[in-house]
């Protein structure tokens, strides 16, 4: 993950990410093994002025998992709690 240039490079290829996908992945990689609730992720990634449903997180997580395959399995769902990135 190239924070300065806002790029994700996987196995030598740049993967196109939306701004929100990039921010979610950044949050996970900076806090590996820490579980984030949907509400916490919404408050950290989306501004307070924007109304976003918690299902938006689920959609973004699904897209992230596909984009970073085979590492998508490292984004783990903790039922009743939220999501985390496990090594």
Q: What's the alpha carbon Rg, rounded to whole Å?
A: 12 Å
Strand percent estimate: 15-25%
Q: Span from first to last CA? A: 15 Å
Strand pairing plus helix content: what structural class? Answer: alpha+beta
**Within the largest sheet, what's the order of strands?**
1-2
CATH top level is Mainly Alpha
In terms of per-residue confidence, which ranges show pLDDT below 50 for 5 or more consecutive residues? none
Describe what is shown at a glance:
The chain has 87 residues and is an alpha+beta fold. The protein has helices spanning 19-30, 38-45, 55-67; strands spanning 8-10, 13-15, 75-78, 82-85. It is globular, with a radius of gyration of 12 Å.
């Amino acid at each position: 993950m190239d924070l300065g240039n806002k790029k994700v490079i996987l196995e030598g290829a740049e993967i196109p990410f939306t701004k929100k996908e990039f921010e979610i992945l950044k949050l996970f990689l900076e806090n590996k093994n820490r579980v984030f609730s949907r509400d916490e992720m919404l408050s950290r990634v989306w501004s307070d002025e924007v109304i976003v449903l918690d299902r938006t997180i689920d959609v973004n997580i699904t897209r992230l998992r596909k984009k970073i395959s085979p590492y998508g399995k490292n984004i783990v769902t903790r039922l009743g709690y939220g999501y985390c990135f496990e090594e």
